[in-house]
């Protein structure tokens, strides 16, 4: 489709004979010339300006024909000594954007730290990960509906075809968070996040299998320290058990499956949604998917009578569950807000730093015993994740015929 072009030929014919402009006519009350860029019939030293407007932006186009040398018009052109007003970048706006972005990163990390601490405390006292996951989706759904009701975020209009395309994403999203909670209930927070550092490995494998996106040699090389570091950390982990290990690995598989499915199915322009809207819809759908499974597998275990019978502090469990659920939804919401402001590579690096912060904080808070070899394995794995986020920017050179 050709773009609609608008051409400006800044040539204006005022008379058929030469005319001189007096200094008084060109002077303003402040003594400055108002027509510093206007020259009489002499040939212009600068090309005239042409701009064309397409659907997205202004683009430079070919210069229009120069005015007839025989005409006595006045041609507007740029002058190197133009004293007129110039646009100055708004430094305050740039500083404000940087401050907002830094605050979002801080909130992202803070919400994630609080989620992992309170969620771990809940799972240690209440050994029902399906019910815990259901509560988190329920609180998130209430927040989403509240935002739409109060017009804090635009309520989307969803078609049946869009819901059908989102359903697979909601299913793997539900399983991903369920497996994460199952792992957190079995092993230390630091070990769960060390295993989840293998997400790039699953992303590369699934993209090659289902999208035909084969990794470069640099990407494959960056996966080696990730796999080796996780293996080293697993062999020396004090809280290691197979249930927690395989739950975290299953979480990696399902979470990366969600990313691959979103690329495979949400490709039509009319089906595309912004990240926050898509996450909001998936949260509500995950609640309805999780509810029957949790009630069937675990029953309704959150009644005060049942909790008191098991010796659990009811008020404390309710409070920590609510805080964990709020932080769970908040950190993912903020994550998508950051992704709208920065490139995916920058977001990936920030996510790597977030994982380091969560691991260190959880080790200090829960006083998790960590051996030097375990620390080395975790460090190597996280370094591999950082390297992966950098080499993803390297694109293979096109093959020359």
From TrEMBL:
Residues of the Sugar phosphate transporter domain: 100-389
Subcellular location: Plastid, Chloroplast membrane
GO molecular function: organophosphate ester transmembrane transporter activity; phosphoglycerate transmembrane transporter activity
InterPro entries, per the entry: EmrE-like (IPR037185), Sugar_P_trans_dom (IPR004853), Tpt_PEP_transl (IPR004696), TPT_transporter (IPR050186)
Record keywords: Chloroplast, Membrane, Plastid, Transit peptide, Transmembrane, Transmembrane helix, Transport
Topology in the lipid bilayer: Multi-pass membrane protein
Residue intervals passing through the bilayer: 99-118, 130-150, 162-180, 201-220, 226-254, 275-297, 373-391
GO CC, alphabetical: chloroplast membrane
Domain of life: Eukaryota
Matching Pfam families: TPT
NCBIfam families for the chain: tpt
Protein name: Triose phosphate/phosphate translocator, non-green plastid, chloroplastic-like
Species of origin: Salvia divinorum (Maria pastora)
């Amino acid at each position: 489709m050709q773009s609609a072009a608008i051409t400006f030929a800044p040539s204006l014919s005022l008379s058929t004979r030469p005319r001189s402009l007096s200094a008084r006519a060109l002077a303003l009350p402040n003594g400055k010339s108002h027509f510093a860029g206007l020259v009489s019939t002499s040939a212009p030293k600068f090309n005239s300006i042409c701009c064309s407007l397409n659907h997205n932006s202004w683009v430079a186009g070919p210069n229009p024909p120069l005015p007839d040398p025989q005409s006595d018009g006045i041609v507007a052109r740029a002058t190197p000594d133009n004293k007129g007003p110039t646009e100055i970048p708004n430094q305050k706006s740039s500083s404000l954007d940087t401050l907002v972005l830094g605050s979002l990163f801080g909130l992202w990390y803070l919400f994630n730290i609080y989620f992992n601490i309170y969620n771990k405390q809940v799972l240690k006292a209440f050994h029902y990960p399906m019910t815990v996951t259901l509560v988190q989706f329920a609180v998130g759904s209430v927040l989403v509906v509240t935002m739409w009701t109060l017009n804090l975020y635009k309520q989307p209009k969803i078609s049946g075809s869009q819901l059908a395309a989102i359903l697979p994403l909601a299913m793997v999203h539900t399983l991903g968070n369920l497996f994460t909670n199952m792992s957190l209930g079995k092993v230390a927070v630091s070990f769960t996040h060390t295993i989840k550092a293998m997400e790039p490995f699953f992303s590369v494998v699934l993209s090659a299998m289902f999208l035909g996106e084969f990794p470069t040699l640099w990407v494959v090389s960056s996966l080696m320290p990730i796999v080796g570091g996780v293996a080293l950390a697993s062999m020396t982990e004090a809280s290691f058990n197979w249930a927690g290990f395989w739950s975290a690995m299953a979480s990696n598989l399902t979470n990366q499956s969600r990313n691959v499915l979103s690329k495979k199915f949400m490709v039509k322009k009319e089906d595309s949604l912004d990240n926050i809207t898509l996450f909001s819809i998936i949260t509500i759908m995950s609640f309805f998917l999780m509810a029957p499974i949790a009630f069937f597998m675990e029953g309704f275990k959150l009644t005060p009578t049942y909790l008191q019978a098991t010796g659990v502090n009811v008020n404390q469990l309710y409070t920590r569950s609510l805080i964990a659920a709020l932080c769970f939804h908040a950190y993912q919401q903020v994550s998508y807000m950051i992704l709208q402001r920065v490139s995916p590579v920058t977001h990936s690096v920030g996510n790597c730093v977030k994982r380091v912060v969560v691991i260190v904080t959880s080790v200090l808070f829960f006083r998790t015993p960590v051996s030097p070899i375990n620390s080395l394995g975790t460090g190597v794995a996280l370094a591999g994740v950082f390297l992966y986020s950098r080499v993803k920017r390297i694109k293979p050179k096109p093959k020359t015929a």
